[in-house]
Amino acid sequence: MGKRVALVLGSGGARGYAHIGVIDELEARGYQICCIAGCSMGAVVGGIHAAGKLAEYRAWIESLDYLDVLRLVDVSFSLGMMRGEKVFGRIREMLGEVNIEDLPIPFTAVATDLTNQQEIWFQEGDLHQAMRASAAIPSIFTPVLQDQRTLVDGGLLNPLPIVPVVSSHCDLIVAVNLNAAGTRHYQLPDIERPPAMRLSLDGLLNRLPFKRNGNGQVQLPSPPEEAEPEAQQPVAAPLKPGSPRSASGARVMDQVGPASLLELVNQSFEVMQTSLAQYKIAGYPPDVLINVPRKVCRFFDFHRAQELIALGRQIASDTLDSYEASQ
């Protein structure tokens, strides 16, 4: 059985941490990763691994709690919620100045050129800029301007970039799809953590982006202590007869749709990526397809690195068991 792997790492926001668990499992089984193609978070993890710095990156992200992630949010009011300078500045410190063509593992980062409406492959040049462009998620990170081009997340056109590795001289192609509908039930494992901060990232991300007043001006949310007391909160409109009731007999209202503009944009983006990924898989079926269910976490749960890494390894182990048993 061949052990030389061409690894394809798809896009999917925070679920991209699962790629680290997949890499752990592949290497533990003796597979040799000989080339990598990645998109968005797949490009970040893949590029860092190709540069030999994945252990350092993993130690950093696993140390982040709610407040640490909050501190990395450098708010922008231009073409994205975040400039990304804090996050990618820290990654640059880890990697130093390195070009893709000098990496020990051949690497391709996929981005989208909005100016010319086409897919872009970075296979040479500055690694940091390639990863930054590939991960410029619309509405979250500001785009990268390069040579009169506006570059954003590669997931707009190719969330699972299999084609760049098709011509590689490897024994098999392993693709990690982070936007799977999921036929098998997987949940994030329970990992003991310190008590959560009073202001959780969950609440902040649901409230922070793109709040506007009646004049259309952007406003930051009020701090928690200024929030209205519970008694002053708006009362939900009466429900129609036959609406579901709680155990106490009171009628309950299920939330319909996303809770914020950020969530709306991200859900729309994920629906598009899920559909595109299926087309890529059908056109160029990989030898091994590792499916990470889209619903295991939200797109922006970047404080859950430990859980997502563990889940990625679990899914990779189950998938590789099935593949190896069939050989």
Which features does this protein show?
single chain, 327 residues, alpha/beta, 8-stranded mixed β-sheet, two-stranded parallel ribbon, 33% helix, 18% strand, globular
Describe the protein in words.
By secondary structure, the protein is an alpha/beta fold. The chain is 33% helix and 18% strand. The strands form 3 sheets. Strands 1, 2, 4, 5, 7, 8, 9 and 12 form an 8-stranded mixed β-sheet that branches. A two-stranded parallel ribbon has the order 3-6. A two-stranded antiparallel sheet has the order 10-11. Helix 1 links the parallel strand 1 and strand 2 (32-39). It starts with a strand and ends with a helix. Residues 197-201 and 209-254 have low confidence and may be disordered.
